[in-house]
Amino acid sequence: xxxxxxxxxxxxxxxxxxxxxxxxxxxxxxxxxxxxxxxxxxxxxxxxxxxxxxxxxxxxxxxxxxxxxxxxxxxxxxxxxxxxxxxxxxxxxxxxxxxxxxxxxxxxxxxxxxxxxxxxxxxxxxxxxxxxxxxxxxxxxxxxxxxxxxxxxxxxxxxxxxxxxxxxxxxxxxxxxxxxxxxxxxxxxxxxxxxxxxxxxxxxxxxxxxxxxxxxxxxxxxxxxxxxxxxxxxxxxxxxxxxxxxxxxxxxxxxxxxxxxxxxxxxxxxxxxxxxxxxxxxxxxxxxxxxxxxxxxxxxxxxxxxxxxxxxxxxxxxxxxxxxxxxxxxxxxxxxxxxxxxxxxxxxxxxxxxxxxxxxxxxxxxxxxxxxxxxxxxxxxxxxxxxxxxxxxxxxxxxxxxxxxxxxxxxxxxx
Length: 415
What we know:
By secondary structure, the protein is mainly α. It has helices at 4-17, 28-35, 39-62, 65-68, 71-92, 96-110, 114-124, 129-153, 159-180, 192-197, 203-208, 213-242, 245-248, 253-279, 281-302, 308-324, 326-336, 342-371, 381-396.
């Protein structure tokens, strides 16, 4: 049990550090009113973060940085830099252009927080990666919801202070990881000297991870999940407003309901982590992806016919399952890779996954302005292709496959 104390610390640091991610969305109403922008512009602010994250993870993976330097040092530097850029966004941005630039730099910094947080978890608890990563992603989910909660608690506080609160939380995250350091279960960082002698060591090896059938299966599932996840989180306040739940629950309002329906994903992650120890990460991941896909279908078909109770239930199940598969797909990916490439492999998977979110967020935000909640149909291909790709890649994999490294320990390998 003592082993999970470091995991808990990392999870809390992840919660505080990733509050930077959607800090602008928590102040969306104020930004729309102050800068005379539209919902599409809010989507572009989110996409600026995603684009920065993609660039950052590509540099980490293809440049070998993720495995050349200690994960704790990258996390600390990134959290402090992210806090600075986020504060600059709050106090120095004066229009959508300057805001996009600063949010882009926040996204670059988040690339050193999220994947490195996963690597830190694997370095402390490799034999329970599915359950441990579930804690981490649960905190990422709460971190995503946190700006909405801060907005609800400080409804009368200027939006600049609400966003600045995320910077303070990121600094606390850096201090927590500074005190903890790296775990004992990963190889020492790859030296610059070693890489200079063999330029083929880092980049080709990372890309060849996709030749591993079980990594490729997990990646397919992860990519389908990412098409749905961040696009849903981006438009969730708009969906809540469109179906009138903000008026039904005025004491919570749209911000409070957004916090609730995103935050319930933390419970979904924790439940998935517990279930993964009994049934394996594959079963949990696919079950969650299928369930969230069914929620997309039900909402798209019946959103204007469901009663308040059924809408609340649907949003709750959707919020819980749309993220519950993420830590399990990451655990499966980590278990399929050689130990010395875990950081880079997770970073490149994150990079591609977040590249997909840029497309889905932009498309859904624009389509929402045209067709309202009916635009949710656009999310459905993600779960469908994710499930099909995952199952097909497993079907094509060898019957007997022993991965070189299995930090998920408990995973039951089908076939």
